[in-house]
Design a protein that fits this description.
The complex is a heterodimer of chains A (161) and B (269). Chain A has 161 residues and is mostly helical. Chain A has 7 helices and no strands. The termini of chain B are far apart. The chains are: A mainly alpha (161), B alpha+beta (269).
């Protein structure tokens, strides 16, 4: 089965990063936006050749995401690598190509990443209700966009090799 | 007992990520900003590409129609350039009309990215840096509104922490009883404006409940922190009573995501 190569995934991360900070930021819903790099990280973890490739790609995507953030360096690499570890361990029992599976995985990943970054940004500063609502919105929005995006990436694996 | 292979493989990556926490932010921010400044042409190219697609799509007309369309497009471009220059000029004029702070030079800067990649942080990246005399701590405005404060500066780009960011603090006052002629300054009370990581701020530590009327304007108060007095921060949305003092929820008036340029207040040397 054809997989992907890390340099090509990093090249793909460039337009994804720019789109996330421009196009996707302009179509926010309840303060949340589509997390394009997170969708790429989910794809990288689910369709990696082996554990090592999945972890490397997710770590580098985390560093990419950290470039546009004013938070402490290293937050997203930790979160994306943790996500990769979970997905790599689960991928044998998942039907990865099913839309419901991708919806659930991407949605849960976006929700958890939003919750964790809220925790690291300001535990007592941001009201908990707002954190929950925005994280849920992020999960739903990213999952809705994630299904066609993962399908498209799955079909474009010939190009990513 | 041996750990599963994916845990053993993952440990070095987790440790490497944690090591990044200890990189001094002065160094890491510069690298991040320099890399972001390289993305400026990518963003412009993407915008031009999308515009080119949009203009190329409806082309089913004859040659004379095409010529007419091109002329109309040129007129539209010139009009929009003219409008942009007018907006920039108005922005400077507005600032000079309302704020009397002759000790500052105004530096116009284009916005590279108007948002932060973290959902809870509020910052924007501008295409001016230390080579233009910008420094961390300088106030950033749009017309007579305070947008935020510079927190990191690279040679050709800088990061502006917005007033809605959780790390933002500034002395501010709510100005009650604004009449048609002049604002009344009789019951002004200073508080601390804090960002909440959402699209709102909170003006804290107020003792007077009378200032908490909806629609009241909140302005900057402490010029010693590099923010000239009188810059508008937002409007009061509602008042909240907490343990003997009052808090005012403040909504910024300027939508920072739509900004194309900002003005940095550089202290004259």
């Amino acid at each position: 089965m054809k997989r992907y190569t890390i340099p090509k995934m990093m090249l793909l991360a460039l337009p994804a990063f720019v789109a996330e900070l421009t196009l996707f930021d302009s179509i926010r819903w309840m303060g949340a936006r589509i997390e394009a790099l997170l969708v790429l990280a989910c794809f990288a973890a689910l369709f990696a050749r082996d554990v090592r490739q999945g972890l490397w790609t997710c770590w580098l995507l985390g560093v990419w995401k950290d470039l546009g953030s004013s938070s402490v360096l290293g937050v997203y690499p930790v979160l994306f690598v943790t996500l990769a570890l979970v997905l790599v361990s689960l991928k044998r029992v998942l039907f990865r190509e099913h839309p419901l599976t991708t919806f659930g995985i991407v949605g849960a990943a976006a929700f958890m990443v939003a919750m964790m970054t809220a925790l690291l940004t300001g535990l007592f500063q941001i009201p908990l209700g707002d954190v929950l609502i925005r994280s849920l919105a992020s999960g739903v929005l990213t999952a809705i966009a994630g299904v066609p995006l993962l399908r498209l990436l799955g079909r474009a694996r010939n190009v990513l090799c | 007992m041996s750990l599963p292979i994916w845990v053993r493989r993952g440990a070095p990556f987790i440790l490497a990520s944690l090591a990044l926490y200890f990189v001094p932010s002065a160094a890491s921010e510069k690298v991040r900003l320099q890399t972001l400044s390289l993305l400026g042409p990518v963003k412009t190219a993407a915008r031009n590409f999308l515009e080119a697609i949009a203009t190329a799509l409806p082309r089913r007309a004859g040659p004379s129609d095409l010529e007419k369309e091109e002329l109309q497009s040129a007129i539209f471009q010139l009009t929009s350039e003219n409008a942009e220059i007018r907006v920039r000029l108005e922005s400077l004029t507005d600032y000079r009309r309302f704020i009397r702070a002759p000790e500052y030079d105004l530096v116009m800067a284009d916005v590279l990215f108007a948002c932060d990649s973290t959902l809870w942080r509020h910052s924007l990246t501008i295409q001016r840096g230390s080579s233009d005399g910008l420094q961390a701590g300088q106030a950033v405005t749009w017309r007579n509104h305070l947008i935020g404060r510079m927190t990191a500066v690279a040679p050709h780009s800088a990061r502006v922490t917005l007033i809605t960011d959780p790390s933002f603090r500034a002395a501010a006052v709510a100005i009650p009883q604004v009449t048609a002629e002049l604002p009344s300054f009789t019951s002004r009370e200073m508080g601390v404006l804090e960002g909440k990581g959402l699209d709102r701020c909170m003006l804290k530590w107020l003792m007077e409940p009378s200032v908490g009327e909806g629609g009241v304007v909140v302005t900057a108060e402490d010029s010693s922190a590099g923010i000239p007095k009188g810059l508008v921060l937002g409007r009061v949305v509602r008042a909240v009573r907490t343990r003997g003092n009052f808090r005012l929820e403040v909504a910024p008036i300027v939508q920072t995501r739509a900004l194309e340029f900002v003005t940095v207040l550089r202290r004259k040397s």
